[in-house]
């Protein structure tokens, strides 16, 4: 004989009551069944389990039932509505029955109606990051169920506080004005519901967007002493950025006469690099500096043109020195007379 047992269902969905608080799945739970309807307890040696189903039919016709989970040993189970094929944006009805290992089973519980949330998308443009002062367009879309939706936009600032930036309306876009905002990452939440609904929301989605400071727009590079110089000379290169935040870091590159580039000083706040040329072969070297705002993760925001620097051999010594023409005035002169001697060198560098 089929013994009557009652199952009372409760539903805990993924949709958060407060933006940013989300569960891993949809949980349906029920009061554990411990006795028969006549008041007699179920023998503790009997195994009690539950079969849970969903249907689009509020009458729960047998042919309409789809399993959520079978032979569940405890008073709850978690499910993914998409994996089960529940249509988004529509109401489904969840029911359960108690099954004993003696073969006895309860009737199905009364249906629990649940509106499967629509799929909701929130897309910013530019997509993930932008420079402060650039407007960002957020586009919302809800899919499933209702033919038309309305949308509500939230933002969580760097202080961690949520605020509504656009209340429910049918327009599915909202433009974020980033002028004057502090650089950093901001979180956004979108609520969606059917037009005319009084629900707080029927679906939701989050997005993140990062505001970057304006980039460095130029950088100069100055050597001291200037080219050319002989090997062994210490040459200091000074980089100077402009634009951006006003606080920069610099990276220096060197290309040898064979054409190979190498990093000679990685990013740091010091804007100078001293090149020790001792023992280097003569030839033409190239130097370049990269610059970015302090704290930036960009490969670079600005860079200098390639500066050439020549290391050259010392000039050969002068070959000879002669007086030419003879001293003026010519000898002899009385003591006290000023005499100008002119010397001329030959060979060497000519200077």
Structure characterization notes:
This protein is an all-beta fold. It folds into 4 domains: 9-115, Sandwich (Immunoglobulin-like); 119-212, Macroglobulin (MG2) domain (Immunoglobulin-like, Sandwich), CATH 2.60.40.1930; 216-311, Immunoglobulins (Immunoglobulin-like, Sandwich); 318-347, no CATH class. It contains no helices and 25 strands. The strands form 7 sheets. Strands 9-15-14-11-12 form a 5-stranded mixed beta sheet, with no helix packed on it. Mean pLDDT is 87; it is low at 1-5 and 12-24.
CATH topology of the largest domain: Immunoglobulin-like
Q: Quick check: average pLDDT?
A: 87
Which sheet architecture does the biggest sheet show? Answer: 5 strands, mixed
Q: What is the helix fraction of residues, given as a range?
A: under 10%
Enumerate the spans where pLDDT stays under 50 for 5 or more consecutive residues.
1-5, 12-24
**Which structural class best describes the helix and strand composition?**
mainly beta
Extended strand count: 25
CATH homologous superfamily title of the largest domain:
Immunoglobulins
- What is the CATH class name of the largest domain? Mainly Beta
Through-space gap between termini: 121 Å
Give the CA-based shape.
rod-shaped
- Give the radius of gyration: 41 Å
Topology, please?
Elements: E1 9-12, E2 26-30, E3 48-55, E4 66-72, E5 76-79, E6 91-100, E7 112-115, E8 119-125, E9 129-131, E10 136-143, E11 149-156, E12 162-169, E13 173-176, E14 184-194, E15 203-212, E16 216-224, E17 234-243, E18 248-255, E19 261-268, E20 272-276, E21 283-293, E22 302-303, E23 307-311, E24 318-323, E25 343-347
Parallel strand pairs: 9-15
Antiparallel strand pairs: 1-2, 2-5, 3-4, 3-6, 6-7, 8-10, 10-13, 11-12, 11-14, 14-15, 16-17, 17-20, 18-19, 18-21, 21-22, 21-23, 24-25
């Amino acid at each position: 004989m089929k013994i009557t047992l009652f199952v009372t269902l409760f539903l805990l969905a993924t949709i958060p009551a407060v933006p940013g608080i989300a569960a891993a799945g949809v949980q349906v739970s029920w009061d554990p069944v411990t006795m028969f309807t006549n008041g007699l307890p179920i023998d503790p040696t009997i195994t009690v389990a539950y079969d849970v189903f969903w249907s689009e039919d509020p009458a729960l016709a047998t042919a309409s039932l789809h399993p959520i989970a079978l032979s569940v040993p405890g008073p709850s189970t978690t499910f993914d509505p998409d994996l089960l094929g529940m249509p988004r944006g529509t109401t489904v009805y969840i029911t359960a029955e108690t099954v004993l290992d003696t073969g006895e089973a309860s009737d199905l519980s009364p249906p629990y109606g649940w509106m499967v949330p629509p799929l909701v998308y929130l897309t910013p443009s530019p997509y993930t990051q932008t420079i402060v002062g650039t407007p960002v367009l957020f586009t919302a879309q809800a899919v499933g169920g209702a033919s038309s939706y309305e949308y509500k936009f939230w933002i969580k600032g760097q202080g961690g506080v949520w605020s509504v930036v656009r209340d429910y309306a049918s327009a599915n876009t909202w433009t974020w004005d980033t002028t004057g905002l502090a650089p950093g990452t901001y979180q956004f939440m979108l609520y969606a519901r059917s037009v005319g609904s009084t629900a707080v929301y029927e679906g939701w989605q989050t997005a993140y967007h990062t505001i970057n400071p304006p980039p460095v727009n130029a950088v100069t590079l100055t050597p001291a002493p200037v080219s050319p110089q002989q090997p062994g000379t210490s040459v200091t290169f000074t980089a100077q950025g402009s634009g951006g935040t006003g606080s920069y870091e610099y990276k220096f590159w060197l290309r040898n006469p064979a054409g190979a580039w190498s990093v000679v000083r990685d990013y740091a706040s010091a804007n100078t690099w001293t090149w020790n040329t001792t023992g280097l072969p003569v030839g033409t070297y190239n130097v370049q500096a990269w610059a970015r705002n302090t704290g930036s993760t960009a490969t670079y925001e600005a860079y200098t043109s390639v500066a050439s620097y020549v290391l050259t051999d010392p000039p050969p010594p002068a070959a000879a020195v002669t007086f030419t023409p003879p001293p003026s005035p010519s000898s002899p002169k009385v003591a006290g007379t000023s005499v100008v001697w002119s010397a001329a060198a030959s060979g060497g560098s000519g200077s």
